[in-house]
Design goal:
Helix content of chain B: 25-40%
Helix content of chain A: over 70%
GO cellular component, one term (chain B): plasma membrane
Radius of gyration of chain B: 19 Å
Strand order of the largest sheet of chain A: 1-4
Order of helices and strands of chain A: HHHHHHEEEHHHHEHHHHH
Low-confidence stretches of chain B: 1-5
Shape of chain A: globular
Structural class of chain B: alpha/beta
Number of strands of chain A: 4
Keywords (chain B): ATP-binding, Nucleotide-binding, Transport
CATH class of chain A: Mainly Alpha
Strand content of chain A: under 5%
Distance between the termini of chain B: 51 Å
Mean pLDDT of chain A: 90
Largest sheet of chain B: 6 strands, mixed
Oligomer: heterodimer
CATH architecture of chain A: Orthogonal Bundle
GO molecular function, one term (chain B): ATP hydrolysis activity
Distance between the termini of chain A: 12 Å
CATH topology of chain A: ABC transporter involved in vitamin B12 uptake, BtuC
Order of helices and strands of chain B: EEEEEHEEHEHHHHEHEHEEHH
Organism (chain B): Rhodovulum adriaticum (Rhodopseudomonas adriatica)
Low-confidence stretches of chain A: none
CATH class of the largest domain in chain B: Alpha Beta
Protein name (chain B): Amino acid/amide ABC transporter ATP-binding protein 1 (HAAT family)
Radius of gyration of chain A: 21 Å
Strand order of the largest sheet of chain B: 8-9-10-5-11-12
């Protein structure tokens, strides 16, 4: 009834091309942004930040990054954990080597370092596809984790082999280290998420996004109409790794504060982010958010419901969670390969007509 | 310029076509022991519709793949616009102004009609990754400019109503039309059509024939056409190359080719006695 585009005429191609063509969508988007920036920082506490908001925002960045590679460019990667580790260790090295430089630049720098590493491990994609590429990226995962464990230079020869984030501030407010307040943690992640999501949207709707999708849908035809496959694939690897590197840097510096590489960035992390984009929706920015929210919220919800509410043992709940996620992935792959994002789209299509039949 | 010049060639319906745009000289293409194309030479002249016909397996599509750079000929030379073409990747050939459609539809099925045709203009888009990420200056301007050009093609092909539909959902005939649109979007000098009317009903064939003639007429695009429907070939094309078992057995205007004994033998079969 209210959700429709009737009467909302576009008079320029730019207007027709905007991200939210329907007016109500634009208002909803602005309302969400307003709540995220002007309401949540004032009410957030440590529990909400650590259990839900900060991991959700960081995983959303990683999921967008992986979605660019897998969902948009069609190159399957199982190296997400390894690339997040590159981001984390690059950030740590930059933070300790240049203590006077702003942490935001360190995090961006970590993104660029990861992008370079991503391109390097993306080179095999020029020759191999599908499962074989997945195995090649899996090798990257194990190699990178091994590297950060074995070479002491990466953890500055610390006795524990861990890396610890020293305190760094933005505009005088600590955002890393033990004195960080929940709202500052939340806000710095939020700013990164908003800017990166906006950039991802711009990339995917423009020339480079179309060349990625062309490679994904029909690589031979793409090359024959003029897409340079080398450039398309490597930019996808670079941009994707940039996002994942920033996610890794934030995960280490802002969220955890101290990291042991095998534990924080193991193969489970690669699968976790992959599950996010499968459940959320391949080839969709919104789906990356939906998937990240789902995978972050599910354990919290189950814990509160089953352990807190019904008194079940914790280990049983943890196993149940694995079973639920596994079942959902199978269901989504069979019934709705485009994930939650597609369900959302279908819902919106229905709403546009509601309550009329046509 | 090393271009071979010809007397202007006047077609049967009185149109004049010009110099050679492309020349294929002694092309041979081998896959291991299999000879797909054996020592074929012909030229394609500015503004003509050049048909390649022949029975199944004659090497027609291989020939098109040689022209579009998908195969590198084992022997022989491809001359394009007066210069010998070095071995190059298909996307480089596309940049030289050669576009094509495929025998089996090769659209980007997850993308909308609009995005498919926009992708056809990729060789003309120059904005940097950073500009695109920030949707800044050139990136934004380019998107609008190219959209205008693409909208003209959409109008020309009468597919306005499916502009935002994912092409995977479209019926076969429309998909073929979108694919033609994607090739046209590059504003090619040379357009290669691999069986554009395969599997179509009479009405769809008539529509497609009209589009091909209009492209040739209005945009002056040179067209190379592979087609099995002889009626269509004879009506549309200015000159015809006939292939059989990888060899060229006829070359000339449709009427002449139709009377050629070798061609009749190849198509109707000949008794060996």
């Amino acid at each position: 009834m209210f959700y429709r585009e009737a009467g909302d005429f576009k008079t320029s191609y730019a207007a027709d091309n905007q991200t939210f063509p329907i007016r109500l969508d634009r208002y909803r988007y602005l309302a969400v942004l307003f709540a995220a920036f002007a309401v949540i920082p004032f009410v957030i506490d440590d529990y909400w930040a650590n259990a839900i908001f900060v991991p959700f925002l960081i995983y959303a960045i990683a999921a967008i990054g992986l979605n660019i590679l897998v969902g948009y460019c069609g190159q399957l990667s199982l190296g997400t954990g390894g690339f997040m580790a590159v981001g984390a260790y690059a950030c740590y090295k930059l933070m300790t080597a240049f203590p006077d430089v702003n942490i935001v630049l360190h995090i961006l720098g970590a993104g660029f370092v990861t992008a370079a590493v991503g391109v390097l491990f993306g080179l095999p994609s020029l020759r191999i596809k599908g499962f074989y590429l997945a195995v090649a990226t899996l090798a990257a995962q194990f190699f990178l984790v091994w590297l950060f464990n074995k070479v002491p230079w990466f953890y500055n020869y610390s006795a524990s082999g861990q890396i610890n984030a020293p305190e760094r501030t933005v505009a005088g407010i600590p955002v890393t280290g033990p004195n960080t307040e929940a709202w500052a943690q939340y806000l710095i992640c939020l700013v990164f998420v908003v800017v990166l999501a906006w950039m991802a949207r711009n990339l995917t709707r423009g020339t480079v996004g179309r060349s990625w999708m062309a490679i994904r849908d029909m690589d031979i035809a793409a090359e024959i109409i003029g897409v340079n496959p080398l450039k398309a694939k490597l930019t996808a690897f670079a941009v994707s790794s940039f996002y994942i590197g920033i996610a890794g840097a934030l995960f280490f510096a802002v969220y955890l504060g101290a990291v042991e590489v095998g534990e924080a960035f193991g193969i489970q992390k690669s699968f976790l982010v992959l599950f996010m984009i499968i459940i959320g929706g391949l080839g969709s920015i919104f789906g990356s958010f939906a998937g990240a929210a789902f995978m972050v919220l599910l354990p919290v919800l189950l814990k509160n419901l089953l352990v807190g509410g019904m008194g079940w043992p914790t280990d049983l709940t943890a196993h149940l969670q694995l079973m639920i996620v596994g079942a959902l992935i199978i269901v989504f792959l069979i019934a709705e390969p485009h994930g939650l994002a597609q369900l959302w789209r279908i819902g919106k299509e229905k709403l546009r007509l509601w309550p009329f039949p046509h | 310029m090393n271009m071979v010049s010809y007397e202007p060639y006047v077609t049967e319906d009185g149109r004049t076509i010009g110099d050679a745009v492309m020349e294929l000289r002694n092309i041979t293409l081998r896959f291991g022991g299999v000879v797909a194309i054996k020592d074929i030479s012909f030229d394609i002249r500015e503004g003509e519709i050049r048909a390649i016909i022949g029975p199944n397996g004659a090497g027609k599509s291989s020939m098109l793949n040689v022209i579009s750079g998908f195969y590198t000929p084992t022997e022989g030379e491809v001359w394009f616009e007066g210069g010998k073409r070095p071995p190059m990747r298909p996307y480089q050939v596309a940049r030289q102004g050669i576009a094509r459609t495929f025998q089996n539809i090769a659209l980007f099925s997850g993308m909308s009609t609009l995005d498919n045709i926009m992708t056809g203009r990729i060789t003309r888009m120059k904005s940097s990754l950073a500009a695109q990420a920030l949707w800044w200056g050139r990136a934004q301007r380019e998107e609008t400019e190219h959209r205008e050009a693409v909208e003209k093609i959409i109008d020309f092909l009468e597919i306005q109503h499916i502009r935002k539909t994912p092409v995977g959902r479209l019926p076969y005939g429309l998909q073929k039309r979108v694919e033609l649109g994607r090739a046209l979007a590059a504003e090619p000098r040379l357009l290669l059509l691999d069986e554009p009317m395969a599997g179509m009903n009479v009405e769809e064939k008539e529509d497609m024939s009209r589009f091909i003639l209009d492209v040739n007429d209005e945009f002056g695009t040179t067209i190379v056409l592979i087609e099995h429907d002889m009626g269509v070939v004879m009506d549309l094309s200015d000159r015809v190359v006939v292939m059989d078992y990888g060899k060229k057995i006829g070359d000339g205007p449709p009427d002449e080719v139709r009377r050629n004994q070798d061609v009749i033998d190849a198509y109707l079969g000949v008794s060996h006695d």
